[in-house]
Amino acid sequence: MAAVATCGTGAGSTGSMVAAGSKNNVTSFQRRGPRASGSDSSYSRLVSIAGTRPSVRNGQLLVSTGLPALDQLLGGGLAVGTVLLIEEDKYNIYSSLLFKYFLAEGIINGHTLLVASAKEDPADILQELPAPLLDDNVKKDFDEDACNHKTAESNIKMKIAWRYQLLPKMEAGPVSSSRFGHYYDVSKKMPQELIEASKWHGFFFPEKSSSTLNIEPCSLTHGYIKLLQFIQNIIYEEGFDGSNPQKKQKNILRIGIQNLGSPLWGDDLCCTENGNSRSLTKFLYVLRGLLRTSLSACMITMPTHLIQNKAIISRVTNLSDTVVGLESFIGSERETNPLYKDYHGLIHIRQIPRLNNLIYDVSDVKDLAFKLKRKLFTIERLHLPPDLSDTVSRSSKQDLAEPSKLLGPGCGVMAGGKKHLDF
Amino acid sequence: MFPELNNLLNTTPDRAEQGKLTLLCDANTDGSFLVHHFLSFYLKANCKVCFVALIQSFSHYNIVGQKLGVSLTVARECGQLVFLEGLKSSVDVFFRAQAEPHPLQFLRSVSLQPSPEVHAWEANAENLQPLYEFVREALKPVDDGEAAWRCPVLLVDDLSVLLSLGMGAVAVLDFIHYCRATVCWERKGNIVALVHDSGDTEDEENNILLNGLSHQSHLILRAEGLATGFCRDVHGQLRILWRTPSQPTTQRDWSLTYQYKIQDKSVSFFAKGMSPAVL
C-alpha cells in the first residue's frame, strides 16, 4: 500500500507532516480505505499513481509484472514493496524475457526504472525491450491471427479430449488496452522516443567496481554493497521513501536486477559448495528492508540451478516474497515429448506472500506450462484432473459444451462452439 | 487468537502458563498464523510483550492483529508492546555507520576475507548480545511497585533469518539460552519463537538450531504441509507436542495431530480426515 504520509500535494500537507513526527509512516503495507485517523486525502492520491491498482483482497497496491497471465496467477499483480524472484531457466532465455516485460511495463506506465546487471549494460538492455501492443493495432492484428488459426482449425472440434475445449485460458485476449497490464510484441523493439522519455537509472557492475581489494565490511560481496548503496541513494534522492516532501506526483520505482548470485557479481555461491553463503541472503534482507519503506517493487532473476548448496535456495526463498520458477524444455528430453509439444516450458509458482492477511490468493492449478507466441505469452494448465462428476454420461455433455466466456477473439486454437460434441 | 487453538492447547488468556518456552516450527508451509495467534493471545492476556519481528513490517502484524481483535498501535503506545522492526532497522543500521549500539548491529559487522588456505567462510565471532540486552531492557519489570502487566513474553519471528544474516547456530542458541534464563526463569515469563524446518534440504545450521531448541522447549507446535500435496480445503497439519524438558519423570511426551484450514479471521481445526469439505 502506498504511503499514508501526507507528503505531496495539498497546501496544508507539509504542516501536518511535520506534526506527524515520525518519518516512518511510509510503508507500503497500510490499508487503504476509511481510517479512523481520517487521512482520506491520500485515497485519491494512491489511486492516481499510474499503472497501479489496489488488490481486491486486502487493498494492497499492485503493479503489473508486464505479463497479464502472470499477474493473474499472483493474485492481481506484484505488490508494491515486495520482491519477485524469478528462478531462471537453464539458458536464461525466458527469464530475461520476463525481465524485459517488467521493464517495458515500467516505461509504458511512466514508472522510474532502476536496472542493475553485471552482464549487459543497462542502456543496451533498454534498447532491446519489446514493443507494446496498443489499442489501435491490437484488434487488427489479433483478427489476423485468429483468421489464420480459424481457417485451419475451425473444423477440428475436440473429439477425444473434449474437456480441453472448455478450458478457460489464463487470460483473455488483448481486445482493449487496459491501464493495468499490457501486451508486448517480441519481434519489434520499443520505440526510441518512449525509451528516451522515460526516466531510468542503470547500474552496470563492471563500471562501478573499483579494483582495490579491501577488507569487505559486513561480509557482503563488494558488488552487493555497491548495489545496495546505489539503490538506497536513488530511493532517497528521488523521494520514493517519502523523505522529500516537495515531490508532487508520487511514482513507483521498478528495480530490476539480473542474474543475481551469478559469479559475475563477484559472488562465489555458484562456483563452490562452501561459498560465502551469507552474502546473498544478507543482501536480500537489506533490499527487502529498503523496499518495504519505499514505493518500489523489485524483480530479481537468479540462476538457482547453478547454486551448489541447496540450503541456500530455501533460505533465499524464505527471504523473498514471491518466487516463480521457470523451466524451459530447450535442450532437455522433454522437448521431443509429445505431451509437451505445444509448450515451451513449465512455470512453477513456488511462493506467494500473505501480506496483511492470514490467507492469500492461491490458484488451484499447480502444473502450469507456458508458451511464447510472437505477441502473447500464455500460461496454461497442463493437465486436467480426472472428471469426478457423478454422471459421466453423454447426456450431461450438452451443458458442458457451452463456450467459455473467457475465450476472446485472440485465443485462436480453442474456439468453442455451441455444438454438442460427439465421440 | 484462535479460540479453537486455545481449546486444543487447553489454555485461555486468563490462565496462561508461565515460564514456558514454546517452539513454533513450520515445514513445507507457512506457519506465520501461529505467530499471529500467540501475539494476540498474550496481548489479550495482559502480558508485556517484546516482539522481535525480523520478517515483516509492523503494519502487517497490525492489520492481521485487528482481524484477531487486538490493536498493536494501541498496545505499543501504552507500553504493553515493545516492537523491534527488523526490516526497517536494518536499513538504518546498514547505511548509517554509527558507533552507537543497536540490537541489530551484527549487520554491520566486519569479517575479514579468509586466507587462501581456509576455504570455508567461518561464521564471524559476533554474537547476539546487543539483541539480548535490548530484550532484557524491554522486559524489565516496572519499578513503581504496581504490577501493570502480568508476565513478560518474548516473541521472535523468526530465528532462521538470523542464520541467513550471518549468525552461527550456536550464537542463536546462546541468545535463546540467555533469554530463557532471564525471561523464563528469573521473571517467570514465556518465550515463543518460530524456526523454519528446511525439510530435506540439508541446511545443517538450521537443523542444529531446530534440534537444540526442540530439546529445550516445553511445547512444540509444528505446522506441516500435507504429505499428499496441495489441497484447497485442508491447508496443513498441526502437530502439538507437550514436553517436560527439565524433569526426568517417566511421564511421556504427549502429542496430538490436527489438520487445519486458514480462513480470513480464524483458523479451524479438525481431526485428520474430518475436514468439513470431505464429510
TrEMBL record, chain A:
Pathway: tRNA modification; 5-methoxycarbonylmethyl-2-thiouridine-tRNA biosynthesis. The keyword tRNA processing applies. Its main location: cytoplasm. GO terms for biological process: tRNA wobble uridine modification. InterPro entries: Elongator_complex_protein_4 (IPR008728), P-loop_NTPase (IPR027417). GO terms for cellular component: cytoplasm; elongator holoenzyme complex; transcription elongation factor complex. It is found in: Cytoplasm; Nucleus. The keyword DNA damage does not apply. Component of the elongator complex which consists of ELP1, ELP2, ELP3, ELP4, ELP5 and ELP6. Belongs to the ELP4 family. Component of the elongator complex which is required for multiple tRNA modifications, including mcm5U (5-methoxycarbonylmethyl uridine), mcm5s2U (5-methoxycarbonylmethyl-2-thiouridine), and ncm5U (5-carbamoylmethyl uridine). The elongator complex catalyzes the formation of carboxymethyluridine in the wobble base at position 34 in tRNAs. This is Elongator complex protein 4. It comes from Acinonyx jubatus (Cheetah). The lineage of its organism: Eukaryota, Metazoa, Chordata, Craniata, Vertebrata.
Automatic annotation (TrEMBL), chain B:
One of its GO terms (biological process) is tRNA wobble uridine modification. Its main location: cytoplasm. It is found in: Cytoplasm; Nucleus. The keyword DNA damage does not apply. Pathway: tRNA modification; 5-methoxycarbonylmethyl-2-thiouridine-tRNA biosynthesis. InterPro entries: ELP6, P-loop_NTPase. GO terms for cellular component: cytoplasm; elongator holoenzyme complex; nucleus. Keywords: Cytoplasm, Nucleus, tRNA processing. Component of the elongator complex which is required for multiple tRNA modifications, including mcm5U (5-methoxycarbonylmethyl uridine), mcm5s2U (5-methoxycarbonylmethyl-2-thiouridine), and ncm5U (5-carbamoylmethyl uridine). The elongator complex catalyzes formation of carboxymethyluridine in the wobble base at position 34 in tRNAs. Involved in cell migration. Component of the elongator complex which consists of ELP1, ELP2, ELP3, ELP4, ELP5 and ELP6. Belongs to the ELP6 family. This is Elongator complex protein 6. It comes from Acinonyx jubatus (Cheetah). The lineage of its organism: Eukaryota, Metazoa, Chordata, Craniata, Vertebrata. The gene is ELP6.
